[in-house]
Amino acid sequence: MAEQDKPEVVDVHPDKRQHQDHKNKEDADLRGSKGRLKAIASEYYVDARLQEVEQEDLAHRSATRQRHVMQKQQANLEAIIALTYDQCHSETAQTPDPDWLVRFFDLARNIHGHAMQQLWAKILKQEMLRPGSTSIKALTILETMTQREAQALQRACALSSTFGQDSTKKLVTGFRRRQGLVQLLRPEPPHKLSLGHYQLSYTDLMLLMDLGLILRTELESGVIEMQPAMPFKLQDTQYMLTPLHKGMRLYYYRFSPTGHELAKLVGKRVHPDYHHAICELLAEGFEMHSDVGDTVNTHA
């Protein structure tokens, strides 16, 4: 018996397949550098020389692009105002300084990302509640910052602390004893930890230094006196530090005045692992009491 011919498979949706093939080709083109560049150039109205058809004259194209830029800037400002309004409640507020407002809007119009727009909205609300809270210099630096740089600052703030009577934020990295005669013969290594283990890489640290938000040199505090105990505020917890030995000093990186100013805007996160690690480290050289009465260590 002869083998029967197999029935012919008929594609009942040729248009659908053609559409899918076309879409796959478009996706592949977009993944390539040329396709990606075309998409970017089209979005920003600078793709005339990449088109095969004749475009309008240069003056018309320039006017179109400028109109597009102004529309985007207007949309950015309106988004920031809407976000500020959502953050406001029934607080007593004032009108910020007119010169400050002009500079604020001039800089804020170029803020496109939603997360950064939320930050600028927070700044505007704070300025209405407490005029003079954020300087024009801080706004100028913030306007140049990318999302990645802002996230690096936020990670640094999560590790920040203050000590003594100085309220400027710092990144404490460890401590050492002052080198006496015995220590010179048998030096004691400093007790330190790496910030890179707590999501603040060396690259991030250098990035913040390049922006002028953290001073470039790791500093060493003066000798910490045995009495009275020194205040040490780590994130939301207040400690009192009493050295176990004479001549104790802390190592730290210091936020610049502008960095400290911006840190107050983005520094609400905490890093529990760092908190635990720095307390364990400091407990090797200090007696620490928290503001709730707990004792971190009880060395003799």
TrEMBL record:
Record-linked InterPro entries: DUF2806
Regions of compositional bias (Basic and acidic residues) in chain numbering: 1-32
One Pfam family here: DUF2806
Stretches the record annotates as Disordered: 1-33
Protein name as annotated: TIGR03899 family protein
Source species, domain of life: Bacteria
